């Protein structure tokens, strides 16, 4: 959208279409329940209504209060007690449940200190004090503010402010003539995963890294701070993992489970551990350090909300940083519960939420945990009343997610062979609060399943379906001034009707091992957006007292989560044919490839423009002579990037999809009536479709990541990169790798097509 008149026309079109949609126009969720005959769909919806009667918001709130009553970090007594509490509930409700234990390397703090030694002195408090009205904030046994998987170190050096500490920030520092080599970097949280900040600082020669929360991002700039409001108070600190994500899980057992007697790497060979010390601090502790910095003024976009001029440093601020840790093994307590399937017991529908928090963890993750418990109780009640899921339900309460999704990864690596044979879906939740349904990410084939389930659950605040409210939110957000390209695209997709726009899965929660490593169909579904929980993320103040005021008062959205996910789980478990719309992958793939072509064009154009500006001396002429700014380093030329293998694979897939859709529609019309053996084979092929997108060699330099269509970005952390082998190579200007992985990725797309054609042939078989 470039001009006001164009925007105006777009608004009319968008709003008009939205009104039609909200009034009952194109709403695919109203169509026949996918994977079901008409009579079976009616029975399933009746079952779901019975399910809803067993979900009690007050009961969910009581469980949350119990689970958050003590410090709940990995290895703590309360973390183990919570695992045992969850285990007892599953068993009480009739599930076959047990605790599976692992032992993983998680360093814990022994000595942490930070002092400014020049031009004046200051000793950081590194402490979160109690706040009025929050009884748990006074408790002992709280894990102090620190980051896990940074190195030990005792360093003294000048401080350099690096903004968010992302690659483009170091480019800007280079132009300012500022280096972090031999110095300590201080970065603010945001605009990229925390672990990238010290990793990039280390790569640029820094001796240590400090990360602070700027009030512009999650403090008083956003709203009233806790306890008056929900945002981060001045001494609140975000803890977190800074593990180098060359691979995930226990740093000493990459790719295999950390079971008793398992082979473990020497500590020196563990790639997941950084080489410099890292320490998170509050904006109260950051203030005197940043205020004393000299050097050039920070660029405008680097300036936070602290009440002084931001400088990048290079003097005179000098700090002394000490991080000393216990490098011990920590216990992991995963709770695994099952309800055995009646028809296809060897097909698993999986559900997971972690139970460990950085401190109390009300918002992250225990609200999601009690939603899962609500589902389990309701399903247990239905089971006792005679309901039997056709497929086996496997519910997991993971431990040690916060230091690096360790509980889920170690369990999945241990059971990898069985999971590849049996797991057909994994549904995740993590943070959860009041607001809008947010399908954070999903395999394309299950987005329709999410949409249909959301259409049948009422939003507790507005009385419309949670689907309708989510669509309205996307429309309004996409029209807002300054909306991101993604928000504008989502609004346009909503305007056209169809399924709820849901992004691809990256990393940062327990779905990662299922998608990235094993290639299992997965989704992450949660509510949020009207809460103020982001300001106390990973701090002492993520408490029950905070949650009942600023997270989800009345626990209505926790209950709504249980109802939406409960429907997804039961519909998948009971479907005669797994409710996956495979043709949606082809549509989504074409969108990804369109983005790749635009990336190549934009990279080529930007490179040419930079070369022109350098050749004519424009950067030098445009720079302020009194504030020297060097020209950027000359970019390498862009050769021909051959995306034709991908384009051809996508075209062949599209043709195969048409044949599959026709065969599927024909079978759906007769209620999927086919011999038992044929039906079983159809479901086996459907359940393993996503595995065809994996390659045993993985991504370049990241062999643990086997999925060639989805992966967390090497320089984004949690955020997904689609077609990552090609996309990231282009972004990194590794032209040969980009061309290589265009071919390799085309190969896995062809594997998907071949599996699809097998399905089509099977569906076309006469009865």
Secondary-structure map:
Blueprint lengths: L3 H19 L15 H15 L4 H11 L9 H16 L3 E10 L2 E11 L3 E2 L23 E2 L4 E9 L5 H10 L7 E5 L7 H8 L4 E5 L2 H4 L21 E2 L36 E4 L1 H9 L21 E14 L2 E11 L4 E11 L7 H23 L6 E8 L7 H9 L1 H7 E6 L6 E8 L4 H9 L10 H14 L5 H11 L16 H6 L4 E8 L14 H8 L4 H19 L8 H33 L2 H5 L21 H26 L6 H12 L22 E3 L7 E3 L1 H8 L3 H30 L3
Helix pairs in contact: 1-13, 1-14, 2-9, 2-17, 3-9, 9-17, 12-17, 13-14, 18-20, 18-22, 20-23, 21-23, 22-23
What does the model show?
The chain is 41% helix and 16% strand. The chain has 767 residues and is α/β, with parallel strands linked by helices. The chain folds into 3 domains: 34-101 and 330-457 and 503-574, Zn peptidases (Aminopeptidase, 3-Layer(aba) Sandwich), CATH 3.40.630.10; 108-323, Glucose Oxidase, domain 1 (3-Layer(bba) Sandwich), CATH 3.50.30.30; 583-764, Transcription Elongation Factor S-II, Chain A (Up-down Bundle). It has a 7-stranded mixed sheet with strand order 1-11-13-12-14-16-15, sandwiched between helices. A 7-stranded mixed sheet has the order 3-2-10-5-6-7-9. It has a two-stranded parallel sheet with strand order 4-8. Strand 17 and strand 18 form a beta hairpin. Helix 13 packs across helix 14. It is globular.
């Amino acid at each position: 959208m470039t001009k006001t008149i164009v925007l105006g026309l777009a608004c009319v079109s968008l709003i008009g279409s939205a009104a039609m949609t909200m009034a009952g126009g194109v709403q695919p969720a109203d169509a026949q329940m996918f994977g079901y005959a008409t009579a079976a769909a009616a029975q399933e919806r009746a079952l779901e209504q019975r399910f809803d009667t067993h979900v009690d918001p007050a009961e969910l709130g009581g469980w949350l209060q119990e689970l958050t009553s003590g410090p709940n970090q990995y290895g703590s007594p309360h973390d183990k007690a919570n695992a045992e509490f969850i285990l007892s509930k599953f068993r009480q409700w009739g599930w076959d449940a047990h605790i599976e234990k692992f032992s993983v390397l998680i360093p814990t703090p022994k000595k942490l200190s930070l002092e400014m030694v020049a031009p004046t002195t200051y000793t950081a408090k590194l402490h979160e004090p109690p706040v009025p009205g929050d009884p748990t904030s006074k408790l002992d046994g709280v894990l102090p503010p620190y980051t896990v998987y940074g190195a030990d170190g005792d360093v003294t050096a000048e401080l350099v402010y690096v903004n968010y500490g992302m690659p483009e920030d170091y480019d800007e520092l280079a132009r300012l003539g500022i280096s972090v080599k031999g110095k300590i970097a201080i970065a603010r949280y945001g605009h990229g995963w925390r672990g990238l900040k010290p990793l990039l600082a280390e790569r640029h020669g820094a001796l240590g890294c400090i990360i602070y929360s700027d009030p512009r991002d999650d403090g008083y700039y956003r709203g009233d701070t806790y306890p008056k409001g929900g945002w981060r108070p001045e001494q609140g600190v975000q803890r977190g993992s800074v593990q180098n994500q060359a691979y995930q899980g226990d740093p000493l057992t990459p790719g295999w489970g950390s079971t008793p007697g398992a082979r473990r790497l020497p500590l020196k060979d563990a790639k997941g551990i950084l080489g410099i010390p890292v320490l998170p601090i509050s904006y109260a502790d950051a203030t005197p350090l940043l205020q004393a910095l000299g050097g050039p003024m920070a660029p405008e976009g680097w300036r936070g909300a602290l009440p002084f001029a931001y400088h990048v440093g290079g003097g005179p601020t000098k700090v002394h940083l000490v991080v000393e840790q216990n490098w011990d093994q920590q216990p992991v307590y995963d709770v695994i519960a099952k309800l055995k399937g009646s028809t296809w017991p060897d097909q698993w529908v999986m559900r997971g939420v972690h139970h460990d928090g950085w401190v109390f963890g009300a918002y992250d993750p225990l609200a999601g945990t009690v939603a899962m418990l609500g589902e389990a109780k309701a399903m247990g009640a239905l089971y006792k009343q005679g309901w039997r899921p056709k497929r086996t339900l496997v519910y997991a309460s993971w431990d040690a997610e916060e230091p690096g999704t360790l509980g889920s990864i170690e369990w999945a690596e241990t059971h990898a062979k069985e999971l590849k044979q049996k797991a057909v879906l994994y549904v995740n939740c993590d943070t959860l609060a009041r607001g809008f349904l947010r399908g954070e990410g999903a395999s394309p084939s299950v987005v329709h399943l999410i949409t249909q389930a959301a259409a049948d659950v009422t939003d507790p605040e507005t009385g419309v379906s949670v689907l309708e409210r989510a669509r309205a939110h996307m429309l309004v957000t996409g029209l807002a001034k300054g909306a991101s390209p993604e928000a504008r695209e989502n609004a346009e997709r909503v305007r056209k009707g169809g399924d709820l726009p849901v992004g691809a899965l990256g990393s940062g929660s327990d779905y990662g091992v299922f998608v990235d490593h094993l290639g299992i169909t997965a989704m992450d579904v949660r509510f949020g957006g009207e809460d103020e929980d982001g300001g106390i993320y990973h701090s002492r103040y993520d408490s029950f007292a905070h949650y009942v005021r600023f997270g989800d008062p009345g626990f209505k959205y926790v209950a709504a989560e249980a109802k939406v996910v409960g429907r997804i789980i039961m519909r998948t478990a009971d479907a005669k044919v797994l409710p996956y719309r495979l043709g949606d992958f082809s549509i989504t793939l074409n969108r990804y490839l369109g983005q790749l072509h635009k990336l190549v064009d934009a990279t080529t154009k930007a490179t040419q423009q930079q070369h022109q500006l350098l050749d004519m001396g424009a950067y030098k002429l445009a720079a302020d002579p009194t504030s020297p700014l060097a020209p950027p380093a000359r970019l390498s030329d862009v050769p021909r990037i051959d995306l034709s293998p991908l384009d051809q694979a996508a075209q062949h897939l599209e043709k195969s999809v048409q044949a599959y859709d026709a065969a599927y529609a024909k079978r759906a019309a007769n209620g999927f009536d086919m011999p038992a053996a044929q039906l079983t084979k159809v479901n086996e092929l459907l359940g393993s479709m996503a595995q065809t997108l994996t390659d045993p060699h993985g991504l370049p330099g990241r062999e643990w990541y086997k999925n060639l269509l989805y992966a967390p970005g090497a320089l984004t952390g949690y955020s997904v990169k689609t077609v990552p082998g090609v996309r990231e190579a282009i972004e990194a200007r590794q032209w040969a790798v980009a061309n290589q992985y265009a071919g390799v990725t085309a190969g896995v797309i062809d594997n998907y097509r071949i599996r699809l054609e097998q399905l089509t042939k099977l569906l076309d078989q006469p009865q």
